[in-house]
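To fix ideas, we reproduce below a protein record of this kind.
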Amino acid sequence: MSDEHDIPVQASSGNVFSDLGRPDAEEALARVRLAQQIAEVIERKDLSQIEAAALMGIDQPKVSALMRGRLSGFSTDRLFRFEFLQPDCG
C-alpha cells in the first residue's frame, strides 16, 4: 500500500466547534446538546412537530429547524426555557 494516499489525522478535542476554531465553541456545543435532548424528548413522547410547537410556545417551522440542527435562532437560554421539558409536564 502506498503512502501517497495517506491522510493526516488529528485527534478531536471532543468539541468539533473548538477544533474548527470557533470563538463560541463551548456555547455552540451546549446548544447542540440541548437541541439533541429536546429532539429526543419530542420523539420519546411521540409528539408531532405541531404538538411540540404548542407545548414550547413556538411555531412548527421553528421546531423543524431545531430538529434539523438549524440553531441560529435559538440561544442557550431559550433552549433551556422550553416548558414541556419540565418534570411536572409528564
Summary: The chain has a mean pLDDT of 88. The chain is about 50% helix and 0% strand.
